[in-house]
Design a protein that fits this description.
The chain has 135 residues and is of the alpha+beta class. Helices cover 41% and strands 12% of the residues. The termini are far apart.
């Protein structure tokens, strides 16, 4: 099983995923074949193959950090006293909800998406009521 650890890039964003067992850096670029493999590995093996200790700027990005179980804790640890924490947390929850409703990785299975949908606030659900219901 391949495992990945996200590293903070030079510009303060996640711009590389580093294979834990190797020194290979992978740019988070859709044209990069290693990035495509990274996404496929997340899709087939699940989010447990990814670790992250820094949410960088706190915005959901192509690294997929926002779908980790510790994503909200990463935001709280970094932006706990910052007035922007509420907005960052809302953006994170909205991003998760939309992906869960659209059955996109990592929420393709209703078993994984269901808890995300169920725990999402009614305010967010109302904002995205135009999304079709999952079955």
């Amino acid at each position: 099983m391949t495992t990945y650890k996200l590293q903070k890039g030079i510009k303060g964003t996640h711009n590389v995923a580093v294979l834990k067992d190797d020194v290979t850096s992978i740019p988070l670029d859709e044209a990069n074949t290693d990035y495509k493999k990274y996404l496929e590995d997340l899709k087939t093996q699940g989010m447990s193959i990814l670790t992250c200790t820094d949410c960088c700027d706190g915005a959901p990005d192509k690294s997929m950090w926002q779908y980790l179980d510790n994503a909200e804790q990463l935001l709280t640890d970094k932006y706990g006293s910052d007035p922007s924490l509420h907005d960052k947390m809302t953006a994170l929850r909205e991003d998760r909800y939309v992906r869960a409703m659209e059955a996109k990785t990592p929420y393709e299975s209703m078993k994984v998406a269901g808890p995300v949908i169920d725990t999402t606030s009614q305010e967010i659900k109302d904002k995205y009521r135009h999304l079709p219901m999952r079955r």
